[in-house]
Amino acid sequence: MIADPATGDWPAPAGETSAEWPTVPGFEILQELGRGGMGVVYKARQHSLKRLVALKLIRDGALASPEELARFRIEAEAAARMRHPNVVAIYDIGEHAGRPYFAMELVEGGSLDEYLTGQPQPAALAAELVRTVALAVQHAHEQKVIHRDLKPANILLSVQSSEGGAREKQDVSTVGLGPSLLPKITDFGLAKRLDSQSTALTREGAVLGTAGYMAPEQAEGRHRDIGPATDVYALGAILYELLTGQPPFQADSWNQMLQFVLHEDPVPLTRLQPSLPGDLETVCLKCLEKEAGRRYVRAGDLADDLGRFLDGQPVSAVPLGKRERLDRLAKRHGYQIVSAVGTGPRSTVYHALEGTLKQPVAVKVYRAGICTQDEWVAWLCRAADSWAGLAHPHIVPVRRAGWWDGEPCLMQEYVPNGSLADKVTDRRYTVAQALRLVEQLTEVVGYLHRQGIVHGNLKPANVLLAPDGIPRVTDIYPTGGILQRSERWEDCKPADVVYVAPELVRDPGAESRPYTDIYGLGMIFYALLTGKPPFRGATAQEVLDEVRTQDPIPPSQLNSKITPQLAGCCMRCLKKDPWRRYHRTYDLLMRLRRLQENEDGGV
User: What is the pTM of this model?
Assistant: First the structure.
C-alpha cells in the first residue's frame, strides 16, 4: 500500500550522533525516536520533574515556513486540549531559538502499524481496540478538534504490566497484539479546529491525510465538509485492516488510491474472512460509507455499537439490502435502476436510465462469484471482435460491459415489450403465428452461424419483442460464453433447465455447436404450438433426466390443428442425437417456408 509522503514516518538518519541533536533548555535529549512530515520526535529527560518525555521539535526550524510554524503550533494546542487516558498527554509547550517544541507523554510500546503483520486479528480484540480509540476520538470531538489523520501509525500502544503500569518497550514480535496493550492517539499535525480559523491554512481542494485512511471528502479536498464523520471513516478503515489483515483499498500510486477511495466500495469483509460475524462487518462498512451522512454521526455512536457487539447484543447498524446496494453501484456508474425485468439462474436484468439524458437501457448483472475479474476482462477482449462484426436489426446490441463490486454486468439496448417467455405462458400461438416467428428466429440464428457464432442458449426468455412484434435475440454466446459454461444445474429452478440441449446435459462443459441452436429453435417452436415446453419435473434434476432420456409427446397430440408434417418438422429439431437434426439452419428455414406456402402447414 502507498503512503502519503506528507504525513509518512521516516527513521532517524543513519549515523546521527548526540552532537547533532538540538539543545532545548530544561531537557536532555537521549535518542531520536522518529520523524514525520513536520517534526522530529526525541526521547528526552525533563530535568525539572525528573521524568522521561517525548520531545517534538519542528524540522529545520530556521528554514520552516510561516505555514509550517503555524501548523506545528496548531498541533500542540489541539493536543493540549485533551485530557483522556487514550490520547497522548501534552506536558509542556515552548519555543527556543525561534524553534517551537512541545513535550508529551512517552509511550514506548510502539505504534499499531508495527504490530500488524498482515494477519487478521480476533474479532473481539479488534472491536475492543477500536471501541477504545473511538471513545478517545469522541473526547477530541467534544473539544472541537477533528484529528483528520487517524491511522495505525498514529495510534501508539502502551504495554501494561499485570499491576496496571506501563512496561518498557518490548519486541513487538514477542508481545503480539493483545488486551495488555493500551492504545493512545497521537500526532494532531493535521487537526482541524472547529472553533477557530485554523483551516484557513488549508486551501479548498488541497488533499491532506494518508490516502488509505482518508474519507472521500478529504480525498476531494472539501475541507468545509470535514467533521466528526471524517474521523469515523478512518476508524472504520483501521477496523477493516484489523479484521481482514489488509486496508480497505490497496493501490500502486497515490492517484489510483484516491480514485478507489472516491469511486469504489471496499470488498465486503466476509468475502475475505467468511467466519467474521455479520454484525461486525455491518458496523465496519457503515463507517466506510462514501456519504458522510450515512456513517455514524458521532465516534461515540460507533463505540456504542461496538460495545453492543462485544456484549452479544444486536447492533444498530443495518446492512444494505441487495437492491439498495445495486442502486448505489449503478448511480456511481451513471445509471438509475428503474425496475427488475427478468431473473435467470445466472443473472438479473434491470430496466435502467443512462446518463443525464435518461436514455433507457437494459443492465444485466450476473451473480457474484460466477467468474473472476481477470477471467471477465480476458473474455470480454475475446468477445469484442464478435460483437464488432454483428450488424443485424434483430440482434440486441451490447453497449458496454462493467465490473460492479465483484459482479460482471452488461449494458444493452432496452426492448420494452418483454420477452417471448411472458407471451408463451399467456396464450397458445396460432400455427401461422408460430411458423412466422420461428422462421424469423431461424433467419437470425443462420446469420449468427455465418459469422462463426453459436448462440448456445436459445429459449423464450432470450427472445425479446419489439413494439412491432418482431423478435430481438439477446444473450448470444459472446454475451454468455464463460458464464454459460459455469452453470450448476443443482442450483437452478426446473424452468431454468428445461431448454438445455441433451448434449449439454450429458456434458455441461461441452462446446455449443450449430445443432445446439437448432434444438433451441425446436424447443421454442414446440412451446409456441402447444403453450408449454415438452418436459416437466418437480426439480431441476427430474427435468434434466427427462431431457436426457425421454422423447417429447408429438405436438399434434396436444393441438389438433397441427398437421403431421408440421409436427415432424418440430420433432426433427428435438432429436436426442444431434446428427439426426437438421444439419443447417438453412435446411430448417427452407422447410418452415415451404410449410407456410402450402396446405401442409395447416395455414
Answer: 0.72
